[in-house]
Description:
Number of domains: 1
Largest sheet: none
Helix content: 55-70%
Radius of gyration: 15 Å
Structural class: mainly alpha
Strand content: under 5%
Oligomer: single chain
Distance between the termini: 39 Å
Shape: globular
Number of helices: 9
Order of helices and strands: HHHHHHHHH
Number of strands: 0
Amino acid sequence: MSETGLISVRTEVVLDVLVGSLSRAVDERMAAPLPPGVEAALAQAGDEAAVRAARAGWHARMVELERFERAREPDLLVSSMLSGVAACAALAAREPLDRPEPDDEHAMTWRIPGPGGHVRHYVAARAVADGAGKLKRSWVFGFLLACAPQIEESVSRGAP
């Protein structure tokens, strides 16, 4: 591949090994309590199914941070875009429902340092299985909240 930092891999290997492992780790954390500010932010995803999807997105990012050194690299542009709950919601609403391409300007899942938009698309798809369309964006909302450095702070102050 010509873009720096991207490598070509076989989809079935990614699905079997990486996506499966990440999805299992997320499933194991779903019942874990989160800080009150995070819970309040996730609650803004919508109904119970949307909040569950957002929670899975949050946990997916936490697993990435633990497993991938690249995911821990700061990206000031992305951080500035994720300035609060409303910004995360707006960006999640633009995320492509299908598997995003690396050059898609709406695919925030490709802009966040880590395993990339394709991996995240498949992890989200497993998390929201029955509601893949609308719930993928809820998953992305939770994922972006986990990437936003000041979410707990802004929620506790009552900022949008």
